[in-house]
Amino acid sequence: MDNSVFEILFTTDTCEKIDTEKCLTAYFKKQGHNFLKSAEYAQSNILNFVEFVNKSIQNAITLNTPYIFSFASKEIARINRDYFIVKKLHSNMLQMDWRDFENISGDILEICFGAFDVKVTQATADGGLDFEGKLPIKSTNSNLTYGFVEVYGQSKKYKGNVGIYDIKSFVAFANSKKRNHVHPSQLFMFYTTSYYAANAVNEMKENGFIGLTGFQLANLIYLHQELLSAKSEIIKNLVS
Fold first, then answer.
1. Looking at per-residue confidence, does 24 or 129 come out higher?
2. Which of 187, 195, 188, 141 is nearest to 169 (CA)?
3. Tell me, what DSSP letter sits at residue 196?
């Protein structure tokens, strides 16, 4: 199944649910088949479609992102309208100036993850440290803080995938922060407007980094848009 075809079908449509067979018939028509052949393909692919959608939903849940559909059975498919809002927001992010992306990174760290003492470094094009802060360790039954984790982050405003050399460069920076193996607890985060190459993902996993894609960040902005918009004019314009 091709998700891009489903996107074309439902981007401008306001429906929230659709008969599964009709959905698949429209899908195969969009791929260039005539109505009779599309209806035939739809009937024979319903179970494949349901399996595909449910796997895609579970994958999206793992990534903390929305998916085109929120539910699918042999009878109906429910359209996730939030997906298209986040998709548009992500598209807007790809058009941002790289300095603006660096500037909102600290806001995301503070508002979405609850960090304090957040700082955004002076905007440069050298790929160094872009934002930092501290994540508190709190009791679940009170507002008492028992410590914190230092967070250091880098932002990359890319349209193409972030490659392994970008991550290796950040690994070198991370190692420089670990002073003689005596240092406070530290976490390293990487934000991008795009996605990551497979070897870049593996490199982050090996080093314990958290890497967020542009679509994940767009979803975070969508979920926290009121607080973020109140704090950042850049994000206010982004979501408008």
1. 24
2. 188
3. B
- The one-letter amino acid code at 2 reads D
Q: Reduced to 3 states, what is the DSSP secondary structure of residue 33? A: coil
Contacts of 92 (CB under 8 A, 6+ apart): 238
Whole-structure pTM value: 0.91
List the domain boundaries for the chain. Answer: 3-79, 90-239
Q: How many Å apart are CA 63 and CA 239, to the nearest integer?
A: 21
pLDDT above 60: residue 180? no
The CATH classification of domain 90-239, taken from the options 3.40.50.720, 3.90.650.10, 3.40.1350.10, 3.40.50.1980: 3.40.1350.10
For residue 57, what are its two tokens? 């939903």
The secondary structure of residue 70, as a DSSP letter, is E
Question: Distance between CA 225 and CA 211 in Å, rounded?
Answer: 21
Helices (H), the chain: 3-10, 20-30, 35-44, 46-63, 81-94, 98-113, 164-177, 198-207, 214-223, 225-231, 233-239
